[in-house]
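Researcher: Good morning. I'm working through a list of sequences from a screen, and I'd like to move beyond sequence-only analysis. For each chain I'm collecting a predicted structure so we can compare shapes side by side. This is the next one on the list. No need for commentary yet; just the structure.
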Amino acid sequence: MPETTIPTLYEWLGGIEALTRLTTRFYERVKDDEVLAPVFAHMGGEHPAHVAAFLGEVLGGPTTYSEQHGGHPHMIRQHLNRHLKQEQRRQWVALLLDTADELKMPDDPEFRSALVGYLEWGSRLAVINSQPGAGADPDAPMPKWGWGEVKGPYVGS
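Model: Good morning. Structure tokens for this chain:
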């Protein structure tokens, strides 16, 4: 009996092309969102591609984000002192998932459960890292997310 290879989340969703479509359309929609538009007013045109590369690496794709931008410590630094609120975090997750639906990305329960798990986990860390006094550990490893991740309790440093 042949061995079945389980694809990474990155492979399952369609790779960098699908993530680029997702982040490009998502940030187009952000501009018209009253909760999120002010948060991303400073965003440059390259932002969607950077986020696509970050998500791709986290979800099991190539290490492009780490190689070109400095990995997780760089992403953490992007959130320092941004003073993000839960309302903004919730809207970011909801709009990203709405955009995934709009683009007809995979909606099977296993994939969406894993994606929502990462978006909840990562967005909550972004809020924590955006508060006064937060810092970026230069050795913070890049998160890796798969089909059933559990990271354990958050213990702040």
